[in-house]
Amino acid sequence: MILKKNNIHILSVFICITFFCCTKKDKEITTLFSSLDAKKTNIYFKNTVKENLYFNFINYAYIYNGGGVAIGDINNDGLEDIYFTSNQESNKLYLNKGKFKFQDITEKAKVADLNGWTTGVTMVDINNDGWLDIYVCKSGSLDSHENRKNKLFLNQKNNTFKEVANDFGLDHYGFSTQAYFFDFDKDGDLDMYLVNHRQDFRNNVNIDPRLQNRKEDYNSDQLYRNDGNTFKNITKKAGILNKAWGLSASIGDFNNDGLLDIFVANDFLEPDFLYINQGDETFKEEALKSFNHISSNSMGSDFADINNDLNPDLIVLDMMAEDHIRSKENMATMSISNFHKMVDIGYHHQYMSNMLQLNNKNGTFSEIGQLSGIAKTDWSWAPLVVDFDNDGFNDLFVTNGIEHDLSNQDFRNQMKNNIRNRKKVSLEEAIKMMPSKKMSNYIFKNNQNLTFQNVSKTWGLDKAINSNGAAYADLDNDGDLDLVVNNQGEEASIYKNNTTKNFITITLKGPKENTFGIGATLSLFADKLQQSKQHFISRGFQSSVTSKMTFGLDNIKNIDSLIIDWGNGKSQKILNPKINSNLKINYKNASENKTTKRKKKNHFVQINPSDIGIDFIQKENNFDDFKLQLLLPQKQSEKSAALSIGDVNNDGLDDFFVGNAKGQKAALYIQNKIGKFTKTNTKLFDLEKDFEDTDAQFIDIDNDNDLDLFVTSGGYENKTGSKLLNDRLYLNDSKGNFKKSALKSPFINSKGIAFSDYDKDGDIDIFIGSNVKYGQYPISDKPYFLENKTGKLTNVIDKKFDDISELKIINDAIFSDYDSDGDDDLIVIGEWMPIVFFENIDKKFYRKEIDGVSDKNGWFQTIKATDLNKDGNIDYIIGNWGTNNKFHPTKEKPLHIYADYFDDNTSFDLALSKVSKTGDLLPVRGRECSTQQTPFLNQKVKSFKEFATATMPDIYGFEKLEKATHFTAESFNSIILKNKGNGNFNIEKLPNQAQFSPTLSFEVMDINNDGYLDIFGVGNIYEAEVETIRYDASKGYILLGNKEEKFEYLNDKSYLSNKEAKVVKKIVINNSLHCIILNKNNEITVLKMHNAKL
Fold first, then answer.
1. What angle do CA 424, 428, 431 make, to 5 degrees?
2. Is the CB of residue 305 less than 8 Å from the CB of residue 532?
3. Contacts for 578 with CB less than 8 Å, ≥ 6 apart
4. If 0-12 CB within 10 Å is exposed, 13-18 middle and 19+ buried, where does residue 731 land?
5. d(CA 399, CA 383)
6. DSSP structure string for 376-428
7. What is the rounded CA–CA span in Å between residue 976 and residue 972?
8. What is the tens place of the pLDDT at every residue in 561-595?
9. Coil, strand or helix: which one is 853?
10. pLDDT digits (tens, 9 = 90+) for 909-953
């Protein structure tokens, strides 16, 4: 696993935005973007890097990061001009002459900047005279502070500039990447945050506190406060002195307190920073509070609204390849210990993948990059989130590529061997050892449902070209956004946008201290469309975009209103602005904010559990599953999820039992008449704490009109045959006092309890599922079925079931009359298996094939039976693994697992695999971890390249695979089985908000009291192996039912929870309906519902 890029590794820059398009005048346009030839544009700029013995990829790891682009109207003629930065040669300024014709005025304008190493650039009106100035960042010059001084070119209003960085106090000489201008202290003028990277590239793989604690002021990011005619460096005072490899930042209000915060994307092992503005000129780093995980090698970033909920979302790029060959060639050593060490010291859970952090509007974010389809774009630099096709939703453009692939593992191993063997190679030889491949940029169309579609080819942006910085602007004033890209070693790309949909373009004239209105938020409302954009110009990677804002309107012909919040307590509202126009809005017409946002009525209020007597804490024991089976997809030892509601003392009030993990006490809470709870039976459950409680149900086993308690025992850490795998039965004395009863159960890892009087003899019978066998994932034990005869329980599964071969890792089961024939059938769900129906025929169970259901295996977690549409047929809500993961199995390309003793030792080996685009069966995991599990592969597959191009049969051999246990999974969607009667079902996928994480539990109720049943789902699983992004995006979800029998996500933060929720149950407390949620390693969540019916 690549926890961070290694010492030589580099971040490549973010530049090449290409969309597809077309052509010459007389040809039909077939793509959204047309690449314009330099002969047309007169833009011949090329950023070329030359290495030598004294300056190369070895002593400066960011040598291939490339240059940036800034776009703005520098002469106020209404046309957007372009400034490119060159790392080693002259920067270039091109004046827009109209119709995509540009004039190189670099020398005349005095902005060549020939000395040193140039990186990012921003166009900003630094002195508020209404004319754009140019701030240029410097880096790379290892031995010269002077050559690293940033430049500020002040606009002289005659197409010339004067360098005045020293006069403004902005001639910083660190290793700068990009500058960001914003008003952090709300005094009306623009301050500056400067992203720097530290000078050294030591300590970027292994943590050495001695190096980390030595901080050089100039290597840190910098914060400059605008004091009028000059800027003052307040970095230390503000609390942001740091030591990292910063590559970009994004500005915005991340915690909704009205103050602007700073997100910083850092490379290598240093985690990203989220500096929360404290309102007193200081910041507090709170990335751990807001993000459940982050990218590992963070590069470019952008903060913009992707789902039109009027709140910006964060996209951060990394370097995971979409192509499986490049992915395997660049996948380095997996270090579980190093990963957890970083987590333990506060470096967060970091993964090599692009991140889409969806804004939950409560200061937390849900990372859904894998669900959205944008997680893998290779060595990526610049993300630009904006509406390119003018359909009213922001799309995503990503620049991609690097001159030489520094992360190639065979190259790195060869370099290490040369050093070890003291073999000298020339610089030219070392460079030739690195693979070099041009890659296309990516562009993704917003599907308007939290997902994106890769349209790079159909939009005309599939040219193989390595790119870094990029920016967008309407270069020809036709109402759509064109693209400008700074490429590596090739001429810059200019892409004309051919969109014809409706739009409105906004030009702001701000107050005298902020002439371009930087930081203003614009919200547009038109028909059912709402959009919001915040005006910041430094975006993506080393670049700045147009200061005009364009709203796409699709085919909408009328705008209801446009609201401008200037960010300083003033706003203005424009009614019915004209479409397809450039609207100029002047701050002088703004007025004090008079209206406050109308608060939506919350459906829930969170109750402090200790206020009602609940002091339970779930706590998992520590066990390293991966020592048993290195390549487990996730830990199997942390499945404690026992929670059951019932009136145990027959007083008419709901009580509850909650189980715990091995070594921790379970608890039984009895409710009193005023809605308080008392913990009882404490001595009993103290004696039972060595058991892992995996499930629990209150059942009247002995038919004495009180609820007894059945608890399943499990735990992957318990060896087969362990007495700690004995399930337990506790009998009730009718007063809520329980006594353990002898129960002869198989010693298996149990999970999933279903009970019913299936034979209608007056006694409750019980089905108990079986989970993973000790050290033998994905194999499970045999489930059992206890037939109850006047309190005597006998396992009769072999007598009563015709075929249980499809039952694998069982997670849940339910008795339900799915075919409405008057008796209870059994439905069983689990992992690597389908939803299995057993029809009750003459008091025996026969496996029933359900069309469209029985042929789809999943990783199913939970099942809930209810008549959702009140048609008399029972429907089933099925919680599955969700789609926010790297697997994305389908019927055509399922996820495979092979398991056996591949290398003839005592460990039971496994290999996950998927079908590639070429139809070959390939391993999911990389060479390093695969050879750690099965060392014989070291001799069989000797290089990363060889492993990357090998199929499963090539690696393990046909004979071993044929002999191995082989399961598949075709779908991870959480779904509804809509019962159509006669044993037929329609499968309805739940909305994408229900696919963020594995759904582990459901409740059903009418939450908003509208007469239609609603669904409350919870679930997260944090214990994924370290190469797999943990499943932590869900904050819980509520889906409201309606008369169309559809379910829509309820956007109500009153129920959101940033915890690892395992089970949700309805409970009546003090005559009001509540939900209680069992959270792993945390206290219980108690939610009181305002409107729901009992």
1. 95
2. yes
3. 504, 559
4. middle
5. 7
6. --SSEEEEEEE-SS-SSS-EEEEEE--SS-TT-HHHHHHHHHHHHTT----HH
7. 13
8. 999 999 999 999 999 999 999 999 999 999 998 75
9. coil
10. 999 999 988 889 999 998 888 888 888 888 888 888 888 889 999
